[in-house]
Structures are given as C-alpha cells and as structure tokens.
C-alpha cells in the first residue's frame, strides 16, 4: 500500500518535479515508511511507501530497471506474485522479493497484457523508455484509486484527488454532471468523473497508455457477463454452495500474502464472520479481530458486539472491541473530511476513520467484508429486482436508491449548476440496458459491482484506512469470486432476504444466530441526527463566504434543511443536510477556490 504520483510532459518538454513533490507530500499518511522520486526528463515520479511485502530497501519505489528500460510506481498488493515470480524466474533475474518487481517483469514479458496475469488490487504507472510511453492501470474492481488531470502539454496522476490539487494548475470548477450524480446517489460520483471538472478517475479494469507525443489509448481488460454459462447451468444449489465456498476460501487465502500479520475487521455480520471462519479452516490461528460500536440513537442499536463476541469466542481470535463514544466523533469530523479523497456524505465515514486509527495501532493489514452485499444481493432494494421484469430494472432500482429526482434539482441547486437533462438517469439507463445481463437482478448487481461500489464503499474503505497507513483487503471482491457470483442464478442470491447462497455457505461454518437475524446498520448519532456543535459547523460552512461565492445550492433549500435538520433522509437513511454540508466542508478544507 502506498501513494503514487507523477507528471508526464509531452513533445520534448521537461516534467516539473516541483508539483510531483507537492503531491507526494500530502500523501505521507498513505506511505509513512518511506519516500522516493525519479525522473528521466519527460516523466517525473514520486512515491510514498507502506512496507508490507519485502520490508527491505530493495522493495523501495520508484523501482528502476535500466536493463529493461522500465520504471514503476505501484499502489496495492499482487496476491499471486509468488506464483508469477516462479513463472518469470527462468527469463528474468530478481533483485528483491517484492511484488512491485514482479509487476515490472510481467510487463517486460507480456506488455500491456501484463494486467491479465495479476491477481490483486493495484494502481500502477510504468514508464517504458523504449516505447516512449507511460502505462497506467487500475485493478478490476477499482479497489485502488488512480486520479488523472490533463494540463496544457502534460498529464499528472496521483492516488488522491487532493494530491492533484496540491500540485497546482488544476481546473477546480465544479463538474455539473458530477454534482447531479452526487445529489442523486448518496454522494457517489462514478468514474471517470469527479466533483472537479479538471480531475478524472481511471476507470476500473482499464489500461491507459500515454505516449510522449500526447496521444493515448485505453483498453478495458475485464468485464464479466451476468449470464448463465454452459459449464454451470446444470449445477445444483449444493454444487453452487461448494463452488462459492471454495472460491471464497481461495480469496481469503490469497489475501494472507504479507511479511507482516493480517487481521480482520469483524462487524459480527455474515460477511466478516465468514472471513474469520474461512481463516480458521485455513489453520490461521489466532487471528487478530477488531469490532466497532457506537452509542445507540433514535431507537437504533449502535453495536453488534454480542455477535462479534460470539464469532471471536467460537474461533478463538485475539479480539479487540472498539467503542466510539459520541463525544469522540464531532472532534474527528474535520480530520475525516480532510482524509476524504472525494466528498463522502454517508454517515459512517467518520466512524470508519476512528476505527482505522485504533486498528493501525495494532496491525498494518486487515481483511474486510466490504463488497459482499453488492456481489451477492444483500441490500433491501435487491429483493424487488429479483422478481421484476428485465425491462423494469431501471425504475425498480431508482425507486429504492434515488436520493433526489431530477425534477427536484431546480429547488436544490442554483441555475448555474443545474444540468439541463436527467444525466443520472441516463447513465443508469445505459448501464442497466446494456447486453450481458439476463435478468433485472443481474443488471442491478452488475451496476452495483462495476459502477457504484467503486465509490461507495470501496473508496470509503481505501480513504479511511490509508489515512492511518492501514491496508484493507477485500476478499469478496476477488476477481474469481465476482465472476462466479455473476454467473450464479439470481434466485439463489435473492433468497432468505438477500445473500441466500452466501448464507447457505456460512451455515456450514458459523453459528445460526449470526446468520438468521436482521441486517445490521450502525447509526453514527451526531452525523445522522445532527445537533450542536456539529449543526453549527454545517451551518457555518453553508453560509461561509466561500459557499456564497461558489453558489452551488439555493439559499431557500439550505434554510429549509437547517430549519429541520433531522427531517430529511435518503432511502438509505442518510441525512440530506449532512450530504450538502460535507460537500461544502470538503471544498473548503481542501481550499478549492470558489
């Protein structure tokens, strides 16, 4: 895990190392164990290092191979690097035991197709001096971030959006389309857009080749279909359970590769509990586990310690309960917003920030259950999609997921920032109606997994863990697990209130009380039910001179929300006032000019 940055100058110009140094400096938390830089004249690279694999200086980055004419910076982890190293060992000599060097040699062997051989999470930049190009690549599910900004005569990239802003010269105008998405979908802005017009995201599963003359081409290297296959169409439910069980066991085992201990974020739900059980099957004991709880609020239980304690006791883990008092949350809000790579309006981000802070005091790497709901149909809105017609997938999804309709937008944003058409609906329609998904639920799960999940919860997990130099690995987003789940019959996933096939797998290894209970959602009281002093902070941000000069939101709408701060919630239970407040506070925290 690391932070990467770089500048590519075109047509014989020199790359400026100053902006790269500034970008790297603001990503020090992503890589607290080391820093490096490199330039060949037209490319400048920077790197912050978190040591997880090959703790020696031999694994430092940027990593340069003069014989091959290649240099790399890399953020992430390649889980199959030992196997690739063995495969490539007959052709290349290795000077480290790092996965970084394996990527470099894989590129030397397979060229742009090197990504097809990588199993893991990654954002990669490789300078190929012989071809006079830079190859950028992002992993299949977008677990590791990669932002780019095009400037006159050059292109910059970094692991975070604020890093690119720190480099200077970026168009920081608000993107009206992105604002429409942000206000429609719980603050989600899918790739390639970001909330700023001058910064884009390399989409997941994409290789982007940038040549020294400024030309470029992109390739999507992975796109599973959500259809039944000839190989699996005759499988029984039990055979599906066995296949998914085996795939998950492999996914969890892959994510043990490390030169430091690997723990688990244990919520007490099915997903994280299953990870603990699979680790036990693999003989990994004792495993360090970490659970978080908040104060109860609004009649909602704030922790699931009774369940996480049961799992920890069943499998003899080294368990850590982390209780976050409401009084701890408000002081941490500002630092949480500063740590966001993009504004995130869901209520639990600060809780995850505080969890990561405490966990990082014990361990450097954890496995986490994020992604299981999107891959295996665990959300409430997946249930109606399971019985809907293929043609009604769009309206079924929008009815359960939409925060604000397009018709409502003129009441929310000022005319200058109002996009004239329902661009959010159009994007959903494009993805849901695309071929390669047989049923409405197939289409919705494909949308969730390959478009929306990347920005929530994946972006949230990466931002908040890396804010404390903590590496989070997500086995439910293993490429083989996702492909297998994509082919799995929808009726097996939508049963038992959602994630039916996963619950059946879990029944073989977990106590029934962990499985047969309502799905838990943690309230983070000061952020869901806004009160003082946080309400004043939100009000101050929305009334600040910068906010008035920016003029994003209609004053009467802002006052309407402030007058009843706990009366307006999204279908997912997020406070709509908080969503507006986070955006403006994020812009101000990162000094985005109005």
Automatic annotation (TrEMBL):
Identify the InterPro entries for this entry. Answer: Asn_synth_AEB (IPR006426), Asn_synthase (IPR001962), ASN_synthetase/amidase (IPR051786), AsnB_N (IPR033738), Asparagine_synth (IPR017535), GATase_2_dom (IPR017932), Ntn_hydrolases_N (IPR029055), Rossmann-like_a/b/a_fold (IPR014729)
**Catalytic activity entry:** L-aspartate + L-glutamine + ATP + H2O = L-asparagine + L-glutamate + AMP + diphosphate + H(+)
Q: In which pathway does it act?
A: Amino-acid biosynthesis; L-asparagine biosynthesis; L-asparagine from L-aspartate (L-Gln route): step 1/1
The UniProt annotation places L-glutamine binding at 99
Which GO MF terms does the UniProt record name? asparagine synthase (glutamine-hydrolyzing) activity; ATP binding; transferase activity
Which sites are catalytic?
A: 2 (for gatase activity)
Q: Which PROSITE patterns match?
A: GATASE_TYPE_2
Enzyme Commission number(s) from the entry: 6.3.5.4
Membership in a protein family: Belongs to the asparagine synthetase family.
Q: What is this protein called?
A: asparagine synthase (glutamine-hydrolyzing)
